[in-house]
Recover the amino acids of this structure.
């Protein structure tokens, strides 16, 4: 079917043809609803004549559309036009990989970068059970910014008739131009040539053929006829890469060969493994340790030959990448790959915890969008999920290695590793920030923005620890760790250090009421082992001797390893160590990022906004066409971005050099400005900037002593709702909800103690807010206050109004978004029905969502694991290493 410019397929208006191929004709089109360019692929009419084939096509399209991966072409929609099915995808600008390789071999570094992107896209699809089956350079697109997109996922399965090779080849031959048949056949796996069932490992063979071609400029399997090409696939190995290019590292050639094994059992067994091997090869900046992938039981079924290949590959990578052989390297026991599912998830800092006896590893991993606790014996190849541990975060061990403590939203729990049931210990906050279990049967735990609590390990009511008070300038106590005496606990206090940064001071307290004192150290995570205190600073891991008798640090701090997992929000470095000194840490680049995810009222994912970043709060503009969001850069500075939803672009509203500690952008009612908090030292105020990035920022409220957080801008544009946080000695802080007049020197018209999260009703006559004492949502009249009216009854936070004022949303304690039908007018406010909509997927989404004015869509800040394919590294002789490092290399505390 040929379409002319102006033809309409539902909301899509054809602009111009883009090309044609074996899977249909492709057109550039305009989505008139969202005012964006899209690509429309018209599939052959014959497909629509087969109801079963159409049903399978729709299932495939829906499955691929749910992937939302940066290296897979995004599917927006599908439908039917005059008997021909069509599929709507994102519009790409660039060229196919076929054009890139048609002129010869690519530079080795570029080929490696492209290959890693392809592997990550395959890993995402294979993780959802989706196999391409027709991977070739024509189906890989290189965008202008260098990002690779895999095309036609799912369509290959639709195109091919299940059964014999003859039917398969005939289908391809009848729908491609002369010469393209060989190109397609040249990337088939041996099992496809034989007409056997093809699984995800078939894609890996095709991937190997593509990587070979990128490196050599020649096809791996090429004959004068299709039959000769298929015979080469079955019986021959392609020429050595060194014959075509002497610049290809042997380790990279070994990766290619491992993908091109004739027997699927002898190839890499997952695309994740391929991506990891390529990532390790390209990451030449790390000079301290390399993970040797042995016994990778969570990613593939080991065979003797495969295991030998992997070990040899790891040794080759290590030798190839080591740049400083004069420095002693740690011995590596191996690497721990993610359990089945979506990979490790780093909640704040701790995705894993090793048992004190060094025999077990407790791992937090994602599965179907939810976290779960997994247990793996260190001498085993697989991990097992712990039933009843859904939504788990931040595990820690009992000193006898029999129990694992962990957090779920609102609770602290424990699991018996021998197979016993999971049981509750006590109530806890929504965000657990670390726990420690003493030999005296006491658990000390931390929650977000609070002081440490203690509770018997048998359960009970948590209590403050005498002598362990929160410092006046601290924003919370986190990551406790017991020393061997079971009495003294080391913990961190998080506080602002400068206007641009914050730090974690290290303190030591005790269970007997001894006044806590600060150690001469700033860190982001601490552990004790082998007479040393291990601590992380800015993503590097150090060790320093610790005198248990004097409870003092002694001697110099010595580097253990560089570039461990690092979360820029809390400046956290991830590692865990057993009593016998086995160290486990996450590699750099595997920290926490987040995605802005669109969801409907049922929680179904509708798409994502932009690429993963370290996003803070987001706010949808009054007209629903833009989104303002705080973004934390790797440098630690914060920025405000505005995304244009129609154009798919973003602009920095506040430059990186202006302002400090920016937080929570709030739109003016006319959408022309964005307000945000600006903190300098111990005072903060509110600034505003044009939402198009033009001009300069301007103050719209006088600076206040304390921390000002902007909550909302009134519909008439005359007032700001803010929360003013003031410290009060060692007794934590107070929050006061205030309403300021804009540009009136911070004059307050309304004050409500112990309240936050305020939102004006659309007509400006009511104010919804969170009461911090009761933990409930209330509404009061404005300019009141009048009587407060309860909206929630079992806990809630972060209210949002629908645009007509007839519905309120809030987040319940279990992270479910609740819809409340209300009626509001100038003189009356009434609450009617209440119903749950959907539960946010990850435990740290509270405060990170917004709703469109029609109440039909939600933009949720979904925290994600940055590199789910990266393993945890296990190191055994770090103590021997630190004893051999010279004092000239030592960092300053």
């Amino acid at each position: 079917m040929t379409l002319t410019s102006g033809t309409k397929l539902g909301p899509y208006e054809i602009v111009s043809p883009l090309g044609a191929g074996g899977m249909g004709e492709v057109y550039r089109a305009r989505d008139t609803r969202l005012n964006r360019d899209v690509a429309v692929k018209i599939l052959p009419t014959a497909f629509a004549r087969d109801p079963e084939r159409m049903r399978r096509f729709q299932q495939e399209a829906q499955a691929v559309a749910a992937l939302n991966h940066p290296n897979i072409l995004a599917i927006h929609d599908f439908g039917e036009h005059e008997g021909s099915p069509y599929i709507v995808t994102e519009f790409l600008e660039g060229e196919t990989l076929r054009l890139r390789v048609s002129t010869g071999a690519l530079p080795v570094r570029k080929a490696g970068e492209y290959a890693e992107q392809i592997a990550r896209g395959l890993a995402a699809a294979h993780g959802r059970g989706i196999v391409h089956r027709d991977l070739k350079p024509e189906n890989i697109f290189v965008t202008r910014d260098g990002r690779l997109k895999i095309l036609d996922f799912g369509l290959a399965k639709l195109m091919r008739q299940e059964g014999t090779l003859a039917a398969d080849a005939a289908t391809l031959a009848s729908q491609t131009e002369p010469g393209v048949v060989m190109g397609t056949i040249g990337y088939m796996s041996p099992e496809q040539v034989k007409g056997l069932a093809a699984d995800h490992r078939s894609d890996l063979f095709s991937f190997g053929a593509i990587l070979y071609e990128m490196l050599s400029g020649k096809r791996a399997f090429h004959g004068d006829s299709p039959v000769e090409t298929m015979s080469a696939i079955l019986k021959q190995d392609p020429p050595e890469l060194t014959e075509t290019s002497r610049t290809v590292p042997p380790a990279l050639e070994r990766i290619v060969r491992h993908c091109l094994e004739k027997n699927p059992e002898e190839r890499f067994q997952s695309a994740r493994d391929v991506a990891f091997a390529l990532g390790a090869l390209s990451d030449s900046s790390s000079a301290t340790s390399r993970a040797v992938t042995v016994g990778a039981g969570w990613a593939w079924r080991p065979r003797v030959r495969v295991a030998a290949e992997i070990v040899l590959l790891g040794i080759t990578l290590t030798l190839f990448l080591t740049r400083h052989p004069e420095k002693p390297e740690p011995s590596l026991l191996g690497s721990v790959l993610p359990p089945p599912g979506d990979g490790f998830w780093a909640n704040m800092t701790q995705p894993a915890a090793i048992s004190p006896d060094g025999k077990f590893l407790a791992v937090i991993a994602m599965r179907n969008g939810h976290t779960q606790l997994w247990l793996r014996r260190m001498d085993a190849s697989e991990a097992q999920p712990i039933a009843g541990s859904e939504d788990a975060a931040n595990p820690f061990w009992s000193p006898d290695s029999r129990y694992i403590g962990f957090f779920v939203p609102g609770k602290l729990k424990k699991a018996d590793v021998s197979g016993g049931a999971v049981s509750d210990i006590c109530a806890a906050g929504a965000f657990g920030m670390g726990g420690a279990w003493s030999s005296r049967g006491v658990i000390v735990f931390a929650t977000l923005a609070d002081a440490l609590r203690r509770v018997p390990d048998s359960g009970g009511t948590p209590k403050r620890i005498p002598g362990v008070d929160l410092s006046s300038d601290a924003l919370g106590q986190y990551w406790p760790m017991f020393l061997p005496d079971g009495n003294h606990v080391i913990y961190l206090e998080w506080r602002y250090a400068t206007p641009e940064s914050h730090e974690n001071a290290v303190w030591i307290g005790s269970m007997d009421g001894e006044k806590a004192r600060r150690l001469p150290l700033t860190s982001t995570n601490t552990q004790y082992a082998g007479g040393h205190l291990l601590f992380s600073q800015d993503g590097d891991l150090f060790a320093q001797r610790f005198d248990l008798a004097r409870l003092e640090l002694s001697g110099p701090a010595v580097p253990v390893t560089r570039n461990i997992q690092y979360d820029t929000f809390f400046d956290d470095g991830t590692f865990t160590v057993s009593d016998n000194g086995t160290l486990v840490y996450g590699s750099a680049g595997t920290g926490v990022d987040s995605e802005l995810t669109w969801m409907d009222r049922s929680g179904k994912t509708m798409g994502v906004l932009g690429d993963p970043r370290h996003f803070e709060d987001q706010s949808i503009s009054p007209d629903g066409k833009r989104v303002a969001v705080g973004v934390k850069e790797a440098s630690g500075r914060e920025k405000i971005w505005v995304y244009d939803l129609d154009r798919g672009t973003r602009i920095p509203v506040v430059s990186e050099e202006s302002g400090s500690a920016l937080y929570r952008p709030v739109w003016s009612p006319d959408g022309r400005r964005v307000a945000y908090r600006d903190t300098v030292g111990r005072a903060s105020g509110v600034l505003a900037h044009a939402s198009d990035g033009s001009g300069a920022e301007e103050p719209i409220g006088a600076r206040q002593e304390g921390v000002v957080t902007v909550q909302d801008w009134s519909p008439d544009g005359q007032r700001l709702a803010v929360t003013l946080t003031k410290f009060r000695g060692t007794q934590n802080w107070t929050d006061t909800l205030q309403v300021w007049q804009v540009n009136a020197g911070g004059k307050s018209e309304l004050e409500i103690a112990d309240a936050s999260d305020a939102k004006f009703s659309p007509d400006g006559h009511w104010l919804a807010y969170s009461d911090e004492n009761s933990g409930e949502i209330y509404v009061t009249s404005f300019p009141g206050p009048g009587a407060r009216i309860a909206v929630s009854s079992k806990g809630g936070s972060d209210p949002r109004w629908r645009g007509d004022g007839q519905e309120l949303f809030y987040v319940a304690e279990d992270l479910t978004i609740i819809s409340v039908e209300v009626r509001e007018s100038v003189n009356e406010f009434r609450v009617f029905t209440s119903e749950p909509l959907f539960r946010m997927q990850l435990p740290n989404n509270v405060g990170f969502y917004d709703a469109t004015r029609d109440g039909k869509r939600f933009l949720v800040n979904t925290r994600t694991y940055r590199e789910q394919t990266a393993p945890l590294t296990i190191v055994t002789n770090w103590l021997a290493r630190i004893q051999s490092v010279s004092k000239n290399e030592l960092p300053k505390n």
Summary: The first strand starts at residue 8 and ends at 9. Residues 108-127 form the longest helix (20 residues). The CA atoms of residues 239 and 514 lie 72 Å apart.
